[in-house]
User: Which sequence fits this backbone?
C-alpha cells in the first residue's frame, strides 16, 4: 500500500481528529443537558409536557440522523441566509458554518435517545430513597440534585458509555456538510491523491483507538462510582 501521502496530509488528519473529538464532546454534553429534563418530565409530568417530550423522542429516534442533518444545514441554514440582518450580525460567521449545524443535529438527536435512557434511569431509582430524602425536609429541587439525578446517572453509566460510542461513529456524517473532521480529511486525501484504502484504514484505526479510550474512561468512572442494584 502507498503511504507516501501521509507526511503531507498528517497535519490535516490531526486537525480532523481534533474536530471529531470536539464534535463528540460538544454534542454529548448538550444532548445530555437536554435529555435530563426530557426524561424527567416524562416521569413527573405534567401530562401535556410529558406527551411533547415523548413525541420529540419518537421523532428523533424514528428518523435518520442524516436526514435531520440535511434539514438543519440545507433547510434552516438556507432560511437564515435570506435574513440580511442576520448575515450582517456577529452570529453569521458561526451560523454559516456546517460545524454549527452538525453540532445542532447531533445534540438534538442525542437528546432524543438519551431522553428515553434518562426516563428509564429516573424510574429505576427506588421510591423509598426519594421518600427518605423528603422525610429529611429536602425540597423537590434538592431531592433531584442530591439524590434522584446522581442515583439515576449511576444506574445508566454503561448505557451512556455505549451511547457515546454510537455518537462517535455518527460524526463522519459531518463531512457531508463541509466539516473537515477525521473522515472529511481522509476523503480530501482520496480526492486529491486518488488513494482510497490507506486513508480509510487509518481512519478505522483512529476510531478504534478513540472507542477504546471512551470505554476505559467509562470503566474507570464506574469503578469510582459503583452502581448499586
Assistant:
Amino acid at each position: 500500500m502507498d503511504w507516501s501521502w501521509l507526511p503531507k496530509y498528517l497535519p490535516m488528519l490531526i486537525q480532523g481528529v481534533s474536530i471529531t473529538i470536539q464534535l463528540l464532546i460538544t454534542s454529548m454534553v448538550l444532548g445530555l443537558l437536554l435529555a435530563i429534563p426530557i426524561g424527567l418530565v416524562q416521569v413527573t409530568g405534567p401530562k401535556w409536557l410529558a406527551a411533547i417530550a415523548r413525541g420529540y423522542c419518537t421523532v428523533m429516534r424514528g428518523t435518520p440522523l442524516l436526514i435531520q442533518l440535511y434539514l438543519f444545514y440545507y433547510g434552516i441554514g438556507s432560511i437564515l441566509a435570506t435574513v440580511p440582518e442576520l448575515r450582517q450580525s456577529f452570529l453569521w460567521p458561526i451560523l454559516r458554518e456546517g460545524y454549527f449545524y452538525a453540532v445542532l443535529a447531533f445534540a438534538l438527536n442525542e437528546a432524543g435517545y438519551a431522553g428515553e435512557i434518562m426516563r428509564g434511569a429516573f424510574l429505576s431509582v427506588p421510591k423509598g430513597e426519594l421518600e427518605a430524602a423528603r422525610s429529611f425536609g429536602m425540597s423537590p429541587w434538592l431531592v433531584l440534585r442530591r439524590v434522584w439525578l446522581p442515583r439515576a446517572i449511576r444506574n445508566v453509566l454503561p448505557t451512556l458509555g455505549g451511547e457515546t460510542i454510537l455518537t462517535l461513529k455518527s460524526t463522519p456524517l459531518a463531512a457531508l456538510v463541509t466539516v473537515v473532521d477525521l473522515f472529511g480529511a481522509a476523503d480530501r486525501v482520496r480526492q486529491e491523491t486518488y488513494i482510497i484504502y490507506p486513508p480509510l484504514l487509518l481512519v478505522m484505526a483512529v476510531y478504534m483507538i478513540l472507542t477504546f479510550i471512551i470505554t476505559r474512561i467509562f470503566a474507570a468512572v464506574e469503578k469510582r462510582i459503583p452502581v448499586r442494584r
Remarks:
- The chain has a mean pLDDT of 91.
